[in-house]
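re the bet — no i am not wrong, look at it urself. input seq straight from the record:
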Amino acid sequence: MIITLQDRSNYLKGLLVLIGKDRILKADEKFIFKEIGKVLQFAPEFIDQSLEDFLENENISHDPPIFQVNLLPNVLLRMLLK
């Protein structure tokens, strides 16, 4: 299955929304986010900047993302429930 850039971005944003709920970035959350970002083929600089901007910038939406492929939200939920 080919995952579009939009869905990969939404998947990463979905993780950010969950990670950012408590406004605290824990070391294990940061590690998981970076690893998943690599798997989704995002540049390390983009991943780091995303983490920093999401917690600091109040103008970034914290609404859950909308996926083009319905399979991805299920994958995200299963992974986070482990």
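see?? The CA atoms of residues 44 and 50 lie 10 Å apart. told u. also The mean pLDDT is 81. so pay up
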